[in-house]
Specification:
The chain is an all-alpha fold and 69 residues long. It is built from one helix and no strands. Helix content is 62%, strand content 0%. The longest helix is centred in the last third of the chain and has 43 residues.
Length: 69
């Protein structure tokens, strides 16, 4: 039985060309990514929370309308 060491892959980006920017320092890029991640997480949480509260307010109204008709 062959060992898994036969499946060796070439290392990816050994010169680190694809993970750096010629214009911004890595700390600035990390800060930008952190801000975008926090904004996305906050938007997602508030969107889900608003959807839950809107649904909680809508269903009793819909139910009472349905009973009256």
């Amino acid at each position: 039985m062959r060992s898994l060491s036969v499946l060796r892959l070439a290392p990816f980006d050994t010169c680190r060309v694809l993970v750096t920017s010629p214009f911004l320092r890595p700390s600035v890029l990390a800060a930008i990514r952190l801000v975008i991640a926090c904004y996305t997480l906050t938007t997602l949480v508030f969107s889900i929370a608003r959807g839950i509260t809107d649904a909680a307010l809508f269903f009793p109204l819909f139910h009472s309308f349905n009973v009256l008709t």
